[in-house]
Protein 1
Amino acid sequence: MGNDVFEITVNFIKMVVIFLMMVQLVPLLVWVERRACAYMQNRFGPNRVGPLGLTQLLADAVKFITKEEFAPGNGNKFMFYAAPVIALIPATLALNAIPLSIPINVASFEWLGHTWGPYIFKFQGYDFNIGIVFVLAVSSLAAYSLLLAGYGSANKFAMYGALRASAQTISYELAMGLSLVGILLLFNTFSFSEIVTAQSGPLSFYFFGKVITVASVPNWGIIYQPVGAVLLMAAMFAETNRLPFDLPEAEGELVAGYHTEYGGIKMNMFYIGEYGHMLVASALMVIFYFGGCTIYPWLTPDTVNAWFANYGGTTASILTAFVLFAVMMAKILFFLWFFVWVRWTLPRFRYDQLMDLGWKTMLPWALGNTIVTAVVIFIMRTKW
Amino acid sequence: MLMEAIGFYAIALFLIFFAFKTISSANPIHCACYLVLTMIGLAGVFYQLEAQFIAGVQMIVYAGAVMVLFVMVLMLFDIKTELRAFSRGLISGFLKIFSAAILAGFALGAATNSIGIVDEGPPKVMSTNVTRDLSILLYTKYLYAFEALGVMLLVVAVGVVCVSRIKGGTHAKH
């Protein structure tokens, strides 16, 4: 956590702020989702409460919180109440491990008659050197929330939803993990910040042992790994249980799937978990394939830092980090919009189509992508 | 050092408590859920031993995939019959006491034989890249064992498919 009181306090506040950021984005995303859906279906959507209908969400929140609290009589009470809480945990833990900008360097300063040593604050809750494995590990626990919800409700439809959710999650987790192997081989690291640093320069790669650099094109992962990017995106839709993969809550067949018995703030917590997963998925897409918080020729750590050169070390570092954070958020918001866009564009898969796509299409493609990437990297990096 | 000790004993208590609950609770679903918590605790222990990669893989494979399958299959059981089958009878009672005795014997034997592990060995060389070291070991020193294990898992997978397709079931050939 840190070496003294100041560092520990700041690190703790960071974690809470990232969690709150995730929770606060949800109402906004729900508004975007409802307005976008209405726009695509030639309706108005919520536009009465406040400017553009924005305060509709406040009204909704009050409604959710003040609703009557109930639990099914034959269900398992503990599991029923635990499931919505567990829905929040994986997304929060994963989002905290993702760097949203470059680290802030704070020079040593005097405060309260004490010299506080130089600090480096990472723009994330905590930093593991195997961050990617950690994010995959905690997001694989997301299935338990749906399983417990389905089992605790003592309801057939909730149970079907839970079983579908777990089968789907397991099937697509494999393809998701394998689609990432290509990018890991390419950048040769398990650390998010190293991947972002590698992508913040010009396009440069080995061509039969010689380094070739193309100026003015960023060194983004999508250029090397288009197949991996498409596979990851599809797997992310399945992992977040969004349309076209929302079979766990297919309302035409299963009433509302795993949250049939939930109402009020408990159901809202499932929504927060789902949108949190979308946030994590978008952040992963941005970091692996779209340069993280940098856009090479204009917005890299060095160029942005040069804008603020007059302000002195600490202030310049803080301003740089926040400008790059804005860049990162802009990219993440684009992918969140993409999630919403796809949801109201594509119809739902049939269950056998879902399984065929996962096991017979995406898994072989991901395996092939891994093998081809490994062979190509080996040939290109050998001196000829 | 103190923080490490506190962390270790906290995780150890967590692990022992949930491992005990895994074998002592009557409902299979609850057992599986406790086992998930045990797996997560185990990942914590690996993390404390600076084996971050193993900790992550433990979470992904066991807690994330294997146990999800377990819980999913267990939810399809008729738990009332299972409870009746496992909770009564002279033979099952005898088996319970017998296995408890064996377990106690193992625990005692392990405790008396493992004093050497606690002693500090030579100072370990910590590399910054644990994953790289691990993969180099896997593909050089332990290559044979690694590949043999892979082949064994493949055999198991093929065997399971064969067994499940012999007769009956939704995929049976008529």
Protein 2
Amino acid sequence: MRKSVDKFKHIISKVIPLDRSNIDTDAIIPKQFLKSIKRTGFGPNLFDEWRYLDHGEPGMDNSKRSINPDFVLNKPQFKDSKILLVRENFGCGSSREHAPWALLDFGIKVIIAESFADIFYNNCFKNGILPITLQKDEIEELFSETETKTLEIEVNLEKQFVKSSKSYSFEIDEFKKSSLLNGLDEIGLTLENKSVIVNFEKSYFSNYPWLKQE
Amino acid sequence: MAKNLYEKIFDKHVVLAQDDTYLIYIDRHLIHEVTSPQAFEGLKIHERPLWRKESVVAVPDHNVPTTDRDKGIQDPISKIQVETLDQNCKDHNLLQFDMSDVRQGIVHVIGPEQGLTLPGMTIVCGDSHTSTHGAFGALAMGIGTSEVEHVMATQCLIQKKLKTMKIDVQGKTHPLVSAKDIALFVIGQIGTAGGTGYAIEFCGDAIQQLSMEGRMTLCNMAIEAGARSGMVAVDDTTINYLKNKPFAPKNGMWDLAEKDWRTLHSDSDAVFDKVVEIDATMIEPQVSWGTSPEMVKGITESIPKKSNLTSDKHLDFQRALEYMGLNENTPINEISVDKVFIGSCTNSRIEDLREAARYLKGKKINPSIKLAMAVPGSGIVKKQAESEGLDKIFMESGFQWRDPGCSMCLAMNADRLESGDRCASTSNRNFEGRQGQGGRTHLVSPAMAAAAAVHGHFVDIRNEKISG
Ligand code: SF4
């Protein structure tokens, strides 16, 4: 089988604490960057309006722009971090898959939140990103740990736990878990059922003939 | 067994079931220029054909200019994106309403208008406001680009069943309280994550009384409550709207279809995972004051006081007030605006324009307003409005009358707020920077936007003189 995304591996990384709720996909990747017809290259513009002090447009040389030194993503210790820690309803708003593409392009492989918006949550899995939902008080504990030190976290998808000074277990759908672990190509998987879909169409269109406009 | 509307439609579309994961069949696939190019590219790389080209309808809307159409798109990057859509449609022989077609418009306006959105369908689009189409008793969902490719290649989507929520709006709203006010009120009640994981069905007297345009406005905003889809049961209003639409079934097929559509409502004893009851008489005209659609109040109310909020909300509250340049406890009707935008897939249909024009007739916008624009949702809406003389009313009052597209809803084209601008907008999102970096958005109904344009600040539309 053709693999579509990289297999998800066991990760140990510093965690970036981004202490906000309701972070929307407009904030993750502003609209002017959606004009690209590619899936890659969005990393430098991840959280563009928060990360830079000037207004970003596609095609700019980002290394020449003025950086917002207070924004957590810009702190040097998080340069190679793979884990993002946020609050509730992360990824709300627009369905743009450019949001997970930008996170991935930056290097983020895991997002830990109290809750996620539905479409964004789905989009993560399609791109090999693991969104982890923890309880409110657990998120609170992790945030308070990040206040005193640069926190390193271990993420184990196979065994479904996140470990800082304490270990937290998380829930995940079996199908989604195995897709991530094996880097499965979902379209290829669905197409293995080609004849089932063809047969479905036959009876479907005989029941609802007006839907079969040519 | 009794079923609710969501279950009825979902069950009809199950191709395969494995435990709680389903492969469901997709009837209608709408595409636009922003979220489709990478999906077409994926098909090409894997040498996969498009499964059922008749299911696809394409339209450019996000990047198109709303002035000087004949000059084409000035921004070279936007231009490439729209041309890529043109080329992909050509390569795959797809139905497209391109920029020169009078049927072009916002994808969620043209689907229903052309009769391409039908009851009982599963409808997807790489766009979160696909929930709009649920107004027709359809299961309509926004999807990401990987899923767009999946549907193109297989005509199916991998899904779990959503939980179901019934929002029952009982009683009558004030005649000048619109579907937009109902939508904002509901979001204010349940929060922007209140509908996460649910399909919402809106029902009750106040919903039945809504026109199809109103129902679309309501379902459009379901995503702002976190729900992937919103829906309304089929009734006479639905059927009458669809009759004689260009792509709706004709003759004998219509009769067959209508018979089926009439069954598309929740059974009387159907069960929902959650029920929310709302008293329609409590709903005032709404104005959002913050940077999330749940930060909303009635026109006679004030911005909340920090001390009245739970402590976990303090940080977000403070940040929102700072961004919006507002203070706690400010009465909503004291908030002034300098720009007004009437448009977007929430409120750019003919009824919305009529509602605004009815108020604007014989009035002038306030000299403090720097820009007021009306952007019809489609070429067909524009034509209809012009035949009714609405364009003249808008222009005589001081509004600009534009060509159809998403425009300043998300400011991907040239229409955008400057930093610090404060806008009364009929769109659906007031996120930071949504309508332009540093821009401040207040979400309102078309009539409330028109009234704010005339007064230069928000006013209670219920106390205003209306000519028509
Ligand atoms: S009008 Fe706004 S919300 Fe609607 S599809 Fe266009 S950009 Fe999205």
